[in-house]
Amino acid sequence: MSHYKHIFFDLDHTLWDYDANATDSLHELYDRYDFYDLGVFGKADLVKTFFEVNYELWDLYNEHKIHRADIRKRRFPTIFERLGAMLEDMPSDIEPEYVALCPTKKKTYKHAHDILEYLSVKYQLHVITNGFDDIQETKLRSSGIRDYFDVIVTSETANNRKPSKEIFELALNLSNADLEESIMIGDNLGSDIEGALNVGMDHVWFNPNGYKTDKPIQHEIENLLQLKTIL
After folding, report:
1. Rg (CA), the chain
2. CATH topology for 18-104?
3. Chosen CATH of 6-16+108-229 out of 3.40.50.1000, 3.40.630.30, 3.40.630.10, 3.30.2420.10
4. Does the predicted model carry a pTM greater than 0.85?
5. How far apart are CA 139 and CA 19, in angstroms?
6. Which of 12, 96, 113, 226 is deepest in the core (most CB within 10 A)?
7. Which residues of 49-74 are buried (b: 16+ CB within 10 A; e: fewer)?
8. What residues does each domain of the chain span?
9. What is the pLDDT of residues 171-222, one digit of tens each?
């Protein structure tokens, strides 16, 4: 058994499959609102443009250039504009419908449940996520993984976002964890891994797509079950 006692997980793109769940939600909304009848864009166009716009807005949010409300205010109008659709054809409630629907989707990454079950016997498990309290709680419960975790720290709770030291320090304090006995697991080099490095925490880069990096990485896995070789 390793010397670790506390394992901190990222949520989106590490355990909860954001892309798959967002895609399912957008397909559902496409059908609900009969967007096909507009004759302007298909389901694939909507999904592709959504991810482009969403990531741009989240980058601005993480750079403290916009607020949470700005993401929700600007997201779908920008999507419709880029798709060449008329804004008057955009349902006025599509943003709140998406926000309510997506977190209820259940898809997790392959072996997420298996590895959490395995690790929960040996370690205390926690979450550090750049998300909002209500949304992340719904994702955890909808996907059936909430009960594996003791402490959930969001950027909203911490009033700081990964990779800041403050959100990691808060998570350590709330979980009564020693830094030397803790390890971070996440997919994002710029938030999860850089954040762990900022606070001096050991880390595992979850890299299912096999991306390349010149940054020094302590541990790298492509499949969550590979954590068994580390922990």
Report:
1. 19
2. DNA polymerase; domain 1 (1.10.150)
3. 3.40.50.1000
4. yes
5. 13
6. 12
7. bbbebbeebeeebbeeebeeeebeeb
8. 6-16+108-229, 18-104
9. 999 999 999 999 999 999 999 999 999 999 999 999 999 999 998 999 999 9
